[in-house]
Amino acid sequence: MHDLQARRLVPALLLLVLSGAAPAQVSTQPLPEPPPPDLAPRDSARQTGIVTFGQPGQQQFIVRSFEPDPGASAAYRISFEALDTDGDGFLGRAEAAAHPILHGEFAAVDVDGDGRLDRRELAGWLR
């Protein structure tokens, strides 16, 4: 059976070569390197932390944190008195809804989980 297949394949290959058709050639090129991300902090940014992950002698990862951009931190400024509409000295979820960013981060800021924010809980969030 293999002899029959070989007898059919040889004339087909011979016809291909004589006709001048060449087998397709594929060339590949590596993808271009993407530009490196701009990880450099602003000149005015103060580094607030650094953590290194990994074992000595192996690949290590360094994570640095910097103070937020002053323009971005404006979104985290609030007037406690203006949001404390009932004057009880706390901000409930309904009162925090007036400030979309605070409302979205309410659960993270509510450290004691009592459903309301006091000035102490907001101290690290506010600037």
From TrEMBL:
Keywords from the named record: Signal
Protein name: EF-hand domain-containing protein
Signal peptide: 1-24
Organism name: Luteimonas salinisoli
Transmembrane spans: none
Domain named EF-hand: residues: 106-127
Region (Disordered): 25-46
InterPro entries to which the protein is assigned, alphabetical: EF-hand-dom_pair, EF_Hand_1_Ca_BS, EF_hand_dom
Source taxonomy: Bacteria, Pseudomonadati, Pseudomonadota, Gammaproteobacteria, Lysobacterales
Gene3D superfamilies: EF-hand (1.10.238.10)
MF GO annotations: calcium ion binding
One Pfam family matching this protein: EF-hand_5
